[in-house]
Design a protein that fits this description.
- The structure holds two protein chains of two kinds.
- Chain A is an all-alpha fold.
- Helices cover 59% and strands 3% of the residues of chain A.
- The model of chain A is unreliable at 201-214 and 227-271 (pLDDT under 50).
- In chain B, strand 2 and strand 3 form a beta hairpin.
- Chain B is flat and about 45 Å long.
- Classes of the chains: A mainly alpha, B alpha+beta.
Chain lengths: 271, 52
């Protein structure tokens, strides 16, 4: 939300707006730091001994973060910085993992009546574990080929994000096979999800509607300043003073680019 | 490993009210969110090996 808000305001007041928008986040961080304080203080004495020397020292992620700060970033060994790091770590690891771990379970249950998935996977898991004497090792997990296939298939159908990594155009006047000119410096990315879901899907717009939209894109793109042509970053570069005269064309451009590059049947196909 | 451990040690199934169909996912912009209110029935397997 903060990113979206900042993208819509002039750059000279972004620091002020950003600080205001981030106030709830600061409040939650203060509460987390307060809850974390006792645990942080109780963990500090272990840092006086070498790692793994004291059997009472916790080996959790938090203690590893303290060890890293002690060794690499001594200035950040304080409750505020450690609390911030913990928040970032949680946001970056807990939520994606929870999301990615939920879909395979649902996928297995969904496919079980037709493919007997649970029984097949259990058979493989038991066999691999028996070979490794019941030890859950990385090598043993890697031998679970069918489990791996289920996870990959789940990621194919239920990927976390529909868009792949952004690429920057490094040459002048790069033209796609559909005739769209991509100015140098543009950031582009595609949405591969539709093509994973629909075998008959094609990048070439075949309907008259998509052809009309493509023609619109080709018509509008050259009329915009080079710095404003990129539909991915165009919203972030808006100024409030210029918002209303341009917003309609910009919305059209973003929508048209989306429809040309993406399969509009994505949502219904994935459900 | 989570998937393997769960399948090996627990019986899981959809609640009866789902009628065998998985709950829909939600798209928020470009991000796919699993159904937040989805539930599954979980029961520890009696014959599960004690693997940890």
């Amino acid at each position: 939300m903060a990113g979206a808000a900042l993208g819509l305001v002039p750059s000279n007041i972004r620091s002020l707006i950003g600080a205001l928008v981030a106030l709830p986040c600061r409040f939650y961080q203060w509460r987390i730091n307060r809850a974390l304080k006792n645990y942080y203080i109780s963990s500090l004495p272990f840092l006086k001994t070498p790692p793994n020397e004291n059997p009472k020292e916790s080996r959790d992620h938090f203690q590893q973060m303290l060890r890293f700060a002690q060794k690499e970033r001594p200035k950040e060994l304080n409750i505020h910085d450690i609390g911030t790091r913990l928040l970032i770590a949680n946001f970056g690891t807990f939520h994606p993992t929870a999301i990615l771990a939920t879909n395979p379970i649902l996928k297995v249950l969904d496919s079980n009546p037709e493919y007997n998935t649970i029984s097949i996977l259990r058979s493989e898991i038991s066999k691999v574990l028996a070979e490794s004497n019941g030890v859950w090792s990385r090598t043993a997990i890697a031998k679970m080929i069918r489990c791996d296939s289920v996870l990959r298939e789940t990621l194919r159908i239920n990927a976390y994000r529909a868009r792949n990594m952004m690429r920057k155009v490094m040459v002048n006047n790069l033209k796609t096979e559909d005739g769209i000119v991509l100015p140098k410096g543009s950031d582009i990315s595609s949405s591969p999800s539709p093509f994973k879901l629909t075998a008959s899907c094609s990048m070439t717009p075949s309907s008259s509607i998509l052809s009309a939209i493509l023609a619109f894109v080709n018509q509008v793109l050259p009329t915009l300043p080079t710095s404003k042509r990129n539909p991915m970053t165009i919203k972030a570069r808006l100024r409030i003073s210029a918002l209303f005269p341009r917003v309609l064309n910009i919305c059209r451009l973003v929508m048209a680019s989306t429809l040309v590059l993406e399969d509009t049947s994505l949502i219904s196909s994935s459900r | 490993m989570t998937l393997a451990y769960t399948l090996l040690n627990y019986e899981i199934e959809f609640p009866e009210e789902y009628e065998g169909k998985r709950p829909d996912v939600t798209w928020k912009g470009e991000v796919l969110i699993p159904p937040k209110d989805a539930t599954i029935s979980v029961r520890r397997r009696v014959d599960a090996a004690d693997d940890g």
